[in-house]
């Protein structure tokens, strides 16, 4: 897929979209990638379960008109369309992240209202490459290097990125070949935003061999490695469990460090009863401290991402997170 060039063909797109569920919300900004997603999806044998949504971030004066244009294009394809305005106050700092979070929330709310269990976005191989570069620049670990996943479940909602292995140029070419009109978002080239700055470096990096394809391949390999480590950590944690929130300490101490880190993260998450953002540096420091204390025969208490971790001298390690504390443990 990534080696071929020219417009993405109807057959290729049909294969990529084949495993989208029947009822799916298509997130369409009106740019070329998501316009192609909408155009190709509308050609599926049974398009009746498709719904299109456009978030109007209200960041640019043209945004309402662009959303209305997507509505017209969707109607021409026979697809229902919703405009979702972001009408909360916009923060001055961290605008791209806030806009992304708001977009996700608005799309998730609509899916829930309509009883749709899946959202598809049109992220491309180039988006994946930019994501990897940006995460590298922030000092990511292996999980971050894995970039975006083709399919993830978040809050019970399936998020799908069927075009994640497709170069953006092939989607732009497909829009031109199929006569699908799209808008160009000037913020994609606005140097105030990190993603746009990285995009400007892309030709320079590619000239040295660091192409979007290679970055995306790295992400795929990292994802495979991360999944294998997670599986090993899950099995080791299950084997170490004594009662809820309490585990034998030895498996945490004897596992390879990378597996131990993930065991710690999973045990914290289980104790919190929900996914909690965990800083890699904090997990690394906590595992180091646990190992040192065990080697010295000391007890230890540490907090990681709101979870109290206690290593006692009997060889048990206890995780007291929100969920268990609520139950009065
Ligand atoms: N305002 C929006 N409304 C609905 N979906 C959006 C919106 N902005 C982005 N998305 C979805 O998220 C994906 C990735 O967002 P990103 O900002 O990278 O895309 P974009 O530059 O708008 O790309 P595209 O060419 O599709 O429009 C898009 O392909 C689209 O599926």
TrEMBL record:
GO molecular function: ATP binding; tRNA(Ile)-lysidine synthase activity
Localization (cell): Cytoplasm
Reactions catalysed: cytidine(34) in tRNA(Ile2) + L-lysine + ATP = lysidine(34) in tRNA(Ile2) + AMP + diphosphate + H(+)
EC number: 6.3.4.19
Pfam families in the cross-refs: ATP_bind_3 (PF01171)
Location (main, coarse): cytoplasm
Keywords: ATP-binding, Cytoplasm, Ligase, Nucleotide-binding, tRNA processing
Highest taxon above the source species: Bacteria
Domain tRNA(Ile)-lysidine/2-thiocytidine synthase N-terminal: 24-200
Binding positions (ATP): 29-34
Any GO CC annotation of this UniProt entry: cytoplasm
Top-tier EC class: ligase
GO BP, sorted A to Z: tRNA modification
NCBIfam families hit by this protein: lysidine_TilS_N
Summary of the function given for this chain in its UniProt record: Ligates lysine onto the cytidine present at position 34 of the AUA codon-specific tRNA(Ile) that contains the anticodon CAU, in an ATP-dependent manner. Cytidine is converted to lysidine, thus changing the amino acid specificity of the tRNA from methionine to isoleucine.
Family: Belongs to the tRNA(Ile)-lysidine synthase family.
Domain notes: The N-terminal region contains the highly conserved SGGXDS motif, predicted to be a P-loop motif involved in ATP binding.
Protein known as: tRNA(Ile)-lysidine synthase
């Amino acid at each position: 897929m990534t080696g071929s060039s020219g417009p993405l063909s109807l057959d290729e797109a049909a294969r990529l979209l084949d495993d989208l569920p029947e009822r799916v919300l298509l997130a369409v900004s009106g740019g070329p990638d998501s316009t192609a997603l909408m155009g190709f999806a509308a050609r599926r044998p049974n398009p009746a379960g498709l719904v299109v949504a456009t978030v109007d971030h209200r960041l640019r004066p043209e945004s309402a008109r662009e959303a209305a244009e997507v509505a017209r294009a969707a109607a021409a394809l026979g697809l229902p369309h919703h405009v979702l305005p972001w009408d909360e106050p916009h923060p001055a700092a961290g605008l791209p992240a806030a806009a992304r979070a708001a977009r996700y929330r608005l799309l998730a709310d609509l899916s829930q209202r309509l009883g749709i269990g899946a959202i598809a976005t049109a992220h491309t191989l180039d988006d994946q490459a930019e994501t990897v570069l940006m995460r590298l620049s922030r000092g990511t670990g292996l999980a971050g290097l894995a970039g975006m996943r083709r399919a993830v479940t978040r809050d019970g909602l399936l998020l799908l990125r069927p075009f994640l292995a497709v170069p953006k140029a092939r989607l732009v070419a497909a829009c031109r070949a199929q006569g699908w009109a799209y808008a160009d978002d000037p913020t994609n080239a606005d140097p105030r935003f990190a993603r746009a700055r990285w995009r400007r470096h892309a030709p320079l990096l590619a000239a040295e061999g660091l192409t979007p394809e290679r970055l995306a391949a790295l992400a795929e390999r990292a994802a495979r490695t991360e999944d294998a480590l997670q599986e090993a950590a899950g099995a080791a944690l299950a084997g170490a469990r004594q009662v809820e929130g309490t585990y034998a300490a030895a498996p945490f101490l004897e596992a390879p460090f990378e597996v131990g880190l993930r065991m710690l993260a999973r045990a914290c998450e289980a104790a919190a009863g929900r996914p909690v953002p965990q800083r890699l540096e904090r997990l690394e420091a906590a595992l180091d401290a646990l190992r040192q204390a065990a080697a010295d025969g000391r007890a230890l208490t540490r907090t990681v991402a709101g979870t109290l971790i206690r290593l006692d001298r009997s060889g048990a390690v206890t995780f007291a997170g929100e969920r268990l504390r609520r139950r009065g443990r």
